[in-house]
């Protein structure tokens, strides 16, 4: 379906999310931090998904740098965070998932983004 770049510093969470997205038919580039995400960024990525608080470069720092690359200015961004987003991240986000959330919520959100359905910005998707 689509190529997705996923940046998450927690290995277990990253592996689970990658598995769910691959099972849904996506090709996933996985990064363990923001600097790695920026280094692995390819021009044909359809969605950027990132934790906000990560080592080396935060989510909003690497996404801001990515936006400066040709063709990346309109790529949708999904931020994941257990904490309130800083203003810079809010300004970049297409949607926000509040941690913890069910991985199926992320898969559904990506499907909505890719089909052109407008996701609810900053949608709360926390587990009960």
Automatic annotation (TrEMBL):
The modification 4-aspartylphosphate is found at residue 51. PROSITE patterns: RESPONSE_REGULATORY. GO terms for biological process: phosphorelay signal transduction system. InterPro entries: Bact_response_regulator, CheY-like_superfamily, Sig_transdc_resp-reg_receiver. It comes from the Bacteria. Keywords: Phosphoprotein. Residues 3-114 form the Response regulatory domain. This is Response regulator. It comes from Azospirillum doebereinerae.
